Amino acid sequence: AFLPRGSHHTFRNCGDGPLRMIVHTAPAGFEVFFEKVAEVCNRPGEADMQRIVEIALEHGIHFLPDAGH
User: Fold this and answer.
1) Average pLDDT, the chain
2) What is the pLDDT of residue 67?
3) Which long-range contacts (CB under 8 A, 24 or more apart) does 22-27 make?
4) Torsion-angle region of residue 57: left (phi > 0), alpha (psi -120 to 50) or beta?
């Protein structure tokens, strides 16, 4: 899928097991967002969603309310 900058989109794991995705972004630099989120998710216990939202905002990402899909 091609997603232009600023477009609204979502990802969902519809299965019962862990999800793996390959994401390609251009220009380079956005991978820092994924590195920071991975650090939060790899800590013991539940992921700190507030910290993930903060990291997202640092990278210009805004989470929209769930549309119930």
Assistant:
1) 87
2) 60
3) none
4) alpha
